[in-house]
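Next comes one such specimen:
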Amino acid sequence: MSYRYFIFVILGAYLVGSIPFSLIIAKVHGKDIRKIGSGNIGATNLSRALGRRWGYFCFLLDVSKGLLPMVLSGRILSGQVSVGMLFLWLFVGFAAVLGHIFPLYLGFKGGKGVATSFGVALGLWPYYTICAGAAIVVWGLVVLVTRYISLASIVASVVFPAALVGLIAVKEDWKFVELWPLLTAATVIPLMVILRHRGNIKRLMRGTESKIFSK
């Protein structure tokens, strides 16, 4: 396999990640999502503007921005596992998330990257996929109990690397010497997500954060 292919895959992942689906959907409906609610170009804010149905649809599209580049990369790598290969795979996912957070088409002012990060995790089979499953279960539980999407996203971001650490510890065929790039990325990307939620954290502390299903 030639590594030069990954230059184009990584660039393509960034450009795909930069596609502002929520902004496009809102524009089709004659609205500018950047002037509604929190002003964030994410699925949650789109649901406030157009309803939950469009919010769910946008969430799936944002997930696909991370999932599809990772699946394509996995096929190119053909299941090979080495530190170098894992780094290439991770760079693709990082580029997709970076594109969503800092989109080329919107002056590098994008969303928080939660859905796209989830797509990246699902696509990195099996190492991240299992962790993503644990994170999404926790996310759903936190949403059900608190109705805070932002809090659920922050908690799930913490659960993700913790789940990977646990799996590496208990699975004999998962060696830290081979998988340490995955653990590093599993820490860095959630930190990026949490940093993008700084405003939400302040509103949560003040008790002014919006709850899902609230009028």
